[in-house]
Amino acid sequence: LSPSSTFYIFRFRTAQALLGLIALAVFAFGAVEVWAFSVIAAATLGLTAAWALRKWRDPFPVIVTALYAPFGLMVVIGGLQLALGTSQAPYATAGSLLAWLVYLAFLFLAANALADPGVRVEYLRGFLAVVSAACLLGLAQWITQTSSVYWLRAAPGARIFGPFADAEAFAVLIELAFPVALTVALRGGRRQHYYLGACAVMALALAGTRSTVGVAVVAAQLVCVTAAMTAGEYRVALHSRRRGPRFVAGLLGAGALGVLLLGAAWSMGLLRVGTAELESVETVLDRSERVLTRVEALHVSRALIAEKPLLGHGMGSFGPVFARAAPRDDGWYWKHLQSDPLELAVEAGWPALAAQLLLLAVLLLRTRSLNMWGLVIAPLAGAWVHSWFAAPIRTPAVMLAGLALLAFAPGLSARVAVKRRRQP
Amino acid sequence: MSRSHGASDRQPHAMAMHDPPGYRAEPSAGRPIPSDVAVKPPRPKPEPPIRRRRNTVSDWVAVAICLAGALYGLQSTLRRAAGEMLLSGGSLEWAELATRITPDNPLAWKRLARTLPDGADALRRAADLQPGASEPWIDLALELETQQDLDGAEHALQHAAALDPRFMPSWALANFYLRRGREDDFWRSIRGAVAADPARTPTAAALCWRAFDDPGRILERAIPAEPEPLRVYLGYLIDERRLAALPQVWERFEPNLGAADLPLMAELLDDLLAAGDVDFALAVWRSMLSRGLLDHQPPALPGGPYLTNADFAGPVSGVGLDWRFAPAPGVGRGRRAEQGAQPLLELLFSGNQSERTLLLTQVVPVPEGEELTFTFEYATRQLPVVTGVGWRVRDHVSEAVLSERSALPAAEERWERGELKFRAPAGVRLARLELFYERASGPERHEGRYMLRRLDLKRAGAEAEGN
How far apart are CA B230 and CA A63, in angstroms? Predict the structure, then answer.
């Protein structure tokens, strides 16, 4: 990253650093602990400062994209909540503001570093290697024992998988990596077998997470990406002696992955048909205990959104606000809603939902190539769907991996635009 | 071709034209080059001028924003990380340092308050940092009360209650008033707490019962006359088996009785029947039936009818004075009510039933000291001659057997009439009819069906009059 290096080297080294941060986040328990996130935040902000200084000394064109807007909006909302004193938990809001600032900086760095196609290819290889390694680690742990992370650190009450204490968050990480590996494999490159193998490892790991939503999302991704790639590539493959066999091998691999996913679903009991039992005529009339169900929690959240629709109750304040709205005698409360979009709406009001819709709109306006679908839209759409049933945004490793894929969008769409311009 | 010829022809001349001064060409094998002719190398192609990019004003603004954001983020990250690390220490010095590094962290002030002998100021600071939260004010009030600053504690609790109109602040205030012996203020606060969150009525009621043990006063002063608090309070009294307090609450709650209260009423009736409180149980049962919770005719004392749902015209609810299915693995039981036919109850023995099992029961209010006749019609299908099925009558409270008729003979594909006579002794106002199965020694477990209809319970005199 020295100022004397060429701009390509500067980008390449930045991409390496970002990949290193993602690897650190993945293997440091998802970076949910303060120390891990602090290291990542400091490194990201330090890199941003380095880019700013380089721009100052040796001007270069910066990639400016509308994708920054939703994240910038979240930073602005946090700032407004603090400035206007509307937050119910100002210290937590300041922490959330910092996290969104880090995510915005990470997206800026990734969008600029990964604008170069060569850097993107190297990054993708590294990213898939990191996720595959985490999956292998998770499988090894799952087979031997499931009560502690790295066979050392116990996590009582948690549903752990791999380095994560939350198996649902790990399933979302797989949803981010699986379509990327599948897209690269179906393109029929020289390392096709390696990428198909990575997909298989991820599908097996998915069975270990026992995430129902995860299996459904990855199955949908498999079908959609395979269909899109087949529709886009079959004409070329039919007339190419080199790409034809690889295309067929890719399709066979996708079929095998489908079988593997079916096996994963069966192992989780999703495909078993229960035997009908004799109808019981006994009447059960126990008064149920007062347990807050998921539906009730959603109702409480809806009321909280309606209470403060403009700026919300304060970013990072969901836990205490929810505890006040739905108190229990035993003091137990929901720290997270297990539905990120709604939780964000409770914390930041309707603008948080608007930010998500804005991100979706900007992404869908750029859907110009198969690569865009396979490398950006499919992974992020899958993770977003899953986020309605879980809390993956609260795991920084998942967030950073998603941001890096999102950062592919400007580079991919610029490449398509150049190609179209060159065509007669 | 012609173009290349032309080019080669023109080249020497062109080269000569552009040779730099002083350049001497190498001698060639073909044509000798005179020594005084200087050959110049081709002039290097001029490179396009490098347009050095310059930052515009907007670039400078972006650089400044990036640097400012990064610096703010870095200091904030390091500050928060250091603060969190210090908080994990637990000593006074570390807690003080944490409040200096992260003065906006309420947890740091709270932790400091715990380590200080007088933590009121730290708690007040923590409360100021959480606007809208009542918990820090409650913590502060407890600290002030410990230090005998009672006015300050009351003020803090009232501030918490004003901030948060939910259960907890009012509850904390009520506890404070109870500790101080201010009874009127206590009742007002506890009533406010119950009104704020009726679901937590049991918590408030438990405190009231511990402090006063006066059902009338508790109902009057702590429980708002709203359906939900009354419903929850009724449930609390049932759970705690405070039967003496039930009639007053029932009287207030009864007009609000609805279909959703069926499980609660079932529990209430179970308790009343177990305690032998026949009049109250009958009043509850009649109210349930009149409000449409169940569709049966209520029993009447002393003249009868005594049985509920005697001919199985309605479904078996398992509630109160209706029929109940006792747990009997291996026996299927269901009501058959076909169009135009007499409804009947069918019991299906799978062969896997227990050797002794209870099949069907009903608690029946009976006139004490009277002789009664219980009649029924039954039929069997594929059961052996000694069916193992029989009827028994018990005193519901003491469980004493009043009468029994075991091992009814089979009635294959025909309806047989059976009867059982018993006398309700003095003091016995609740009997329990039990249909049971006991396998006789020897035979295998039976597989087959047992059907039952037209059950009736009458006074023996009335039976004779009817005949």
Answer: 65
Query: What is the spatial distance between Cα A287 and Cα A156, in angstroms, rounded to a whole number?
Result: 30
Give the model confidence (pLDDT) of A113-166 as tens digits: 999 989 999 999 999 999 999 999 999 998 887 778 888 887 777 788 999 988
Predicted confidence at residue A423, as pLDDT, reads: 64
Chain A interface test: which of B51, B54, B60, B66 (most A C-beta within 10 Å): B66
Q: A101 vs B73: CB contact, 8 Å cut-off? A: yes
The pTM is what? 0.71
Asked whether the beta carbons of residue A287 and residue B235 sit closer than 8 angstroms, the reply is yes
For B:12-31, CB contacts with A below 8 A are none
User: Per-residue DSSP letters for B33-97?
Assistant: PPTTPPPPPPPPPPPPPP------HHHHHHHHHHHHHHHHHHHHHHHHHHHHHHHTT-SHHHHHH
Residue A408 CA to residue A379 CA, distance in Å, equals: 12
For residue B418 the two structure tokens come to 């059976």
By C-alpha distance, the chain B residue nearest A64 is: B62
CA angle centred on B216, ends B214 and B219, rounded to 5° = 105
Residues A181-227 pLDDT 10s = 999 998 877 888 899 999 999 999 998 898 989 999 999 999 999 99
Are B364 and B457 in contact by the 8 Å Cβ rule? The answer is yes
Q: Which of A21, A34, A97 to mutate to test the interface with B (most CBs of B within 10 A)?
A: A34
